[in-house]
Amino acid sequence: MTHSQTVLLLTGSLRRPSHSCGLCHSVADALGNFGMAVTIFDQREVTLPLHDSVWHKTPEQNPDTGVRKLVQLAEQADAFVLASPIYHNGPSGVLKNALDHLAIKHFAYKPVGLISHGGNRTSQAVDQMRIWVRGLLGHAITTQICTQNGDFEAGGTDDPRISNRKRTIPRTCSLNGE
Ligand SMILES: Cc1cc2nc3c(=O)[nH]c(=O)nc-3n(C[C@H](O)[C@H](O)[C@H](O)COP(=O)(O)O)c2cc1C
Q1: Ligand 1 atom closest to Cα of 118?
Q2: Which tens digits make up the pLDDT trace of 41-89?
Q3: Probe residue for ligand 1, chosen from 14, 25, 88, 95 as the CB with the greatest number of ligand atoms within 8 Å
Q4: What is the pTM of this model?
Q5: Which of 49, 57, 95, 106 has a 20 to 30 A CA-CA distance from 41?
Q6: CATH H-level superfamily of 1-15+41-61+69-86+97-178
Q7: Is 116 in the pocket of ligand 1 (CB under 6 A)?
Q8: 120-159, pLDDT tens digit by residue?
Q9: Please, is 16 exposed, middle or buried when counting C-beta atoms within 10 Å of its C-beta (0-12, 13-18, 19+)?
């Protein structure tokens, strides 16, 4: 019997529409095309409280239902994707707060993909996220995706989607598996 890999994607923007959330959806679509079971934990849909370290050792007992849902999804995940906008030359506090609700036991030895939007495709956010993942004992994979506004379809009230897949991710990765 084959086991479908389960990937949990964590968003780091509360904005609507959001480019980094749109990027997250494009990556989720691509992973789905590879047969993976994907779940996006969209922090606009589930408002997490600021992390209280009293729950650091027992996150599954956090009184907040959103945190417990996040913890349950993280326990079940075989791999993660972390998505963030560029905020002040790094990732968002929204994403970091979600990670602070989790622990090494959720990430240990699991692959983690890193994606970000903003700053003219700067790697500032994914570089910092790579250090976070090391602290959680995860394996941040070498492929990373950094986008700018021109990489997306314009306008609308929905999260924008990637418009030029090959230009966005030259050499390292293609969203449609080519
Ligand atoms: C608090 C804050 C800090 C930001 N800092 C930077 C920055 O340092 N460099 C940059 O290029 N853009 C910066 N931006 C712009 C965001 O990267 C940009 O709005 C991006 O589209 C947000 O992604 P989102 O659409 O997923 O929310 C910042 C935006 C905010 C709200």
Answers
A1: 17
A2: 999 999 999 999 999 999 999 999 999 999 999 999 999 999 999 999 9
A3: 88
A4: 0.93
A5: 57
A6: Flavodoxin domain (3.40.50.360)
A7: no
A8: 999 999 999 999 999 999 999 999 999 999 999 987 899 9
A9: exposed
